[in-house]
Amino acid sequence: MKHFSFESMPVWQIAMDIAVLIFEMTKSLPRSEDYGLTSQIRRSAVSISANIAEGFGRPTPLDKKRFYQIAIGSLLETKSHYIYGCRVAYFEEQINVFQLLDKAHFELNKLIKSIKNAIG
Questions:
Q1: Total domains in the fold of the chain
Q2: Domain holding 98: CATH number?
Q3: Is residue 4 part of a domain?
Q4: Cα separation of 90 and 108, whole Å?
Q5: Given its phi and psi angles, is residue 81 left (phi above 0), alpha (psi -120 to 50 degrees) or beta?
Q6: pLDDT tens by residue, the chain, 120 residues
Q7: Do residues 82 and 59 lie in contact, with contact meaning Cβ atoms separated by under 8 Å?
Q8: Which site from 8, 50, 104, 120 is most exposed, i.e. has the minimal number of CB atoms within 10 Å?
Q9: How far apart are CA 45 and CA 21, in angstroms?
């Protein structure tokens, strides 16, 4: 399927949903976490959609693939921060957060695989 803008990519939409959800979840974190977990998880979460957008704009398939792989790294970083936040009781563990992260990971892997198949 040909995408004409990064905003029309389902994986970018999922990634943006993750970033918004993480932002909302971190609003109630203690002020002492402003430069710790709050900042780290927000940056990693927003980095997922940002790297998808940047990859979309790259001219070559290898460049695209590289940024989609970076997006996976940001996604896994976000997941790790979320797990930590749950373990220290900052967040209540929510299955929908894990489902969104897993769905985005799956979609990014599909996208990377399609690029690999296209370039041989």
A1: 1
A2: 1.20.1440.60
A3: no
A4: 28
A5: alpha
A6: 455 899 999 999 999 999 999 999 999 999 998 889 999 999 999 999 999 999 999 999 999 999 999 999 999 999 999 999 999 999 999 999 999 999 999 999 999 999 989 887
A7: no
A8: 120
A9: 9
